[in-house]
Amino acid sequence: MTMKDIAREANVSIATVSHVINGTKHISEEKHNIIMELIRKYNYFPNTAAKNLRQQSTKTAGLVVSSFPDSFVTEMVFGIEKRAREMGYHLLLINTNEDLEYEEKTINLLHSKMVDGIILSPTGNDIQYLTNFINEDFPIVLVNRYDPRIESVPRVTGDNYLTGFNATMHLLEHGHKKIGFIYSVPDVSTTNDRIAGYKDALRRSHLPFNESYLEAGHATVNGGANAVESLLKREPGITALFVQNDLMTIGAIQKVKQLSLKIPEDIAIIGFGDFASAEIIDPPITNIVLPPDDIGRTAFDVLLSKINHSDYANHIELPPKLMIRKSCGCQGSGS
Q: Fewer CB atoms inside 10 Å of the end CB: C or N, the chain?
């Protein structure tokens, strides 16, 4: 919001809004109340005052995450928190629970409270609402998820394309041609990039992509179990599963065993993220892993770079690693 926007909505002149903000002229109580109500509604802060205040570091940053569905996100948050403490910063953490409207309100609130900058893992791909903050050089860093149309905002992610490609190639090398793909949330960069890698691995092996092999698991244990049931009912020829978070992997394993199918003889499984019990489940679970702690620590370092240099806009991708165990058909452990 600008002063002009406030004036238009209040049906007064820009000068009247300025007088209310600066207390330079008496304005009728009715108009004063209308203008102040709009200022509070939109968390409006005059640009000149904001710029002056922002020259004084508060040593406070905001961290806004879309949800805490699994160990990967939790460890990424821990990495950001640890690095913030090391650099003498306080961190305000907010979980938006995949609610875009709440996310927008949260960013406005943190901005109005004069945090030095924000690390954001957005709910979806469409984050054009950030444009006003970007235009005023307010420091924002995207982590884990991003909007590919916004190039000027620095971001730190894992290489999700390579994650999808490498996991799928590993299953293809075991002879699997019908591979189910269970994702958490549709139409976010993490899901889209992994599906792109999955498709390219199939293409390299001269296999067609089948949309029917994709199923949402909603990042929960029950969701993973339900996704397996739906997939195998619809496509009974599936012999392998690539599951995109640890809770869904647990649900998938439960459902496969309930169906009296053996892992990996009947259904091979590769999960994402290396949760603590992966090695002791029978059989131990092969996972493809991105480094959440490194992603978190790097994200905070990038935020500091953005705070100190407004034109900083680097995009950093960290590579995945395959933790090989028996659920995929391999006999040993390794990477």
A: C
